[in-house]
């Protein structure tokens, strides 16, 4: 079971959009039931990342982070989303 963090500035708005898109992608590509997603504020990533397999952040993450962080901005802009999904798949397959 992979644990995924989805982070945005407030932990509510854009992380909800990102969570929906990543969940849909994962479910459509055979990962249903193989992951959990937790939304959080970007300021919480440093502490919560120790227990996560990877994080998708819609804003810049600073500080020491205990897992890989993927740039989630393509989920909002639509530009580069295929590359992001490829990175999500690679993290899921580790």
Rounded to an integer, what's the Rg over CA atoms?
A: 12 Å
Alpha carbon gap, first and last residue? 11 Å
The shape is globular
The major beta sheet can be summarized as: 4 strands, parallel
Strand order of the largest sheet: 2-1-3-4
Strand content: 15-25%
Percent helix, as a range, is 25-40%
List segments where confidence is low: pLDDT < 50 over at least 5 consecutive residues.
none
Note the run of SSEs as H and E: EHEHEEHH
Number of helices: 4
| Total beta strands | 4
Please, could you describe this protein's structure?
With 94 residues, the protein is an alpha/beta fold. It is 38% helix and 22% strand. It is built from four helices and four strands. It has helices at residues 13-28, 45-48, 74-77, 81-92; strands at residues 2-8, 35-41, 54-57, 69-71. The chain has a four-stranded parallel beta sheet, covered by helices on one side. The chain is globular, with a radius of gyration of 12 Å. The model has no long low-confidence stretch (mean pLDDT 96).
Entry keywords:
4 strands; alpha/beta; 22% strand; 4 helices; 94 residues; globular; 38% helix
């Amino acid at each position: 079971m992979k644990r995924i963090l989805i982070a945005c500035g407030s932990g509510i708005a854009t992380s909800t959009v990102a969570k929906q898109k990543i969940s849909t992608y994962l479910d459509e590509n055979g990962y249903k039931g193989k992951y959990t997603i937790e939304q959080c504020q970007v300021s919480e990533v440093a502490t919560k990342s120790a227990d996560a397999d990877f994080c998708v952040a819609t804003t810049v993450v600073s500080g020491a982070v205990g897992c890989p962080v993927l740039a989630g901005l393509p989920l909002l802009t639509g530009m580069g989303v295929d590359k992001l999904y490829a990175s999500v798949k690679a993290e899921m397959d580790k």
